[in-house]
Please model this.
Amino acid sequence: MDWLIETRDLTRIYGDGDQAIHALDGVNLQVRKGELIAVMGPSGSGKSTLLNMIGALDVPTRGQVLFEGQDLAKIRNKDEFRALKVGFVFQLHNLIPTLTAPENVEVPMMGHLSAGKRRKRSRELLEMVGLGDRMRHLPNQLSGGQRQRVAVARALANNPALVLADEPTGNLDSVAGQDLMDLLHKLNREQGNTFLVVTHDPIVARQTDRVIVMADGRIEREDLIHSPLEEDLKMWRHSGLGKRLLESDPQDLQSLGVTAEQGAALRELLDSNGKSTLPGQ
Model:
């Protein structure tokens, strides 16, 4: 299969000797075109470092990142690669405060399209993300959710093969966060955009096609999403309480206020529905 993204033994080490930090430790990952993927894990697990490597914002200590089969290390003009192939959405929208919404969307297109084509494209994108009535607004005249929608439109400016989103709902309330996820779903489904979304929020993660869980710079597990309930069970199974339920004998569960019958039912539910659905997991 021709992958959009493939990492091979991807390793990133910061520092030397005893002070060295293995931000990524032999990560092997494949991403198909058109996938909507969540990357989860605690702080320091390597999530953002992985996105930086895939987006050519950092270079590996060892290993490779292949983008459409091409080794990123062999691409000389990284700025042009990022401008044309990868869109970025960050937790902080990073909009230029003195530019209107359309002008912010035009920024990545400068040097690639004429002024007239930039204006046309930016208006089309803002209409696509539901901001057709905000063409004259500056960032401080928009809500947090609207600013993130402008950031998504900007990320799509050059029709990139991949959009990397690092905690895009992190500064939004639950309603605005859900609206943003609905937008990503719509773009993924209707436009075929590929998204790699870093998140701490299990509600966000369970709305994607696949969840990659990282720990200590490695991929701990991957789960295919079939339903929100199934994903909740998977996450519960791998939680401290879930592991205790599966590993404890019935008498130990009494300290949790769980009867032997309830414990047996919970173990059966977690064991049958909470396992990873990926082959070999």
Summary: Confidence is low (pLDDT under 50) at residues 274-281.
